[in-house]
Write a structure and sequence with these properties.
With 141 residues, the chain is mainly beta. It has one domain: Sandwich (Immunoglobulin-like). It contains one helix and nine strands. The strands form two sheets. Strands 3-9-8-5-6 form a five-stranded mixed sheet, with no helix packed on it. Strand 5 and strand 6 form a beta hairpin. The protein is globular, with a radius of gyration of 17 Å. The protein starts with a strand and ends with a helix. The model has no long low-confidence stretch (mean pLDDT 90).
Length: 141
């Protein structure tokens, strides 16, 4: 069965063609913005999946974003190709122009299709704060 091993929320992920090693740049936990609404020009979510069985296997996944106001959006759904026994696979999802409307926590949830349903396998929070002296209503009005 394929299982989720790790996920990283960052600005950019690059895989070295010679060594097949991955580098993550500008990893996000929180960001500070001057004004709202705003846009993150580039946001990348890297995941690593492993087939830990003796048989070839594939799977499906989806990414859901939970906004600070509780609304949800599922901008990405994809497939993990058939993997040989004990083989791994990276998925690098790039989102351009991610809109930030409010301060608060944005949660990027990764779900894997297991059995007959999707199961949450990872949550990556992005905490958005605004620089002091700025009022959210003042900057959005």
């Amino acid at each position: 069965m394929i299982r989720h091993i790790w996920s990283v929320l960052c600005e950019r992920s690059i895989v070295d063609k010679e060594t097949n090693r991955i580098s993550h740049f500008m990893c996000y936990e929180s960001i500070l913005v001057d004004k709202l609404p705003g846009i993150l020009p580039l946001l990348t979510i890297s995941t690593y999946w492993l087939n830990d069985s003796k048989d070839p296997s594939n799977s499906k996944f989806k990414l859901t974003v939970v906004y600070p106001d509780g609304t949800k959006e599922t901008p990405v759904q994809g497939e993990i190709p058939e993997l040989a026994p004990f083989a791994g696979h990276r998925t690098i999802l790039t989102v351009t122009g991610f809109k930030i409307k409010h301060v608060g926590t944005y949660i990027f949830q990764i779900f894997q299709h297991i059995g007959k349903r999707y199961k949450k396998v990872a949550e990556l929070p992005l905490i958005v704060k605004q620089t002091e002296g700025k009022d959210e209503e003042e900057t959005t009005g």
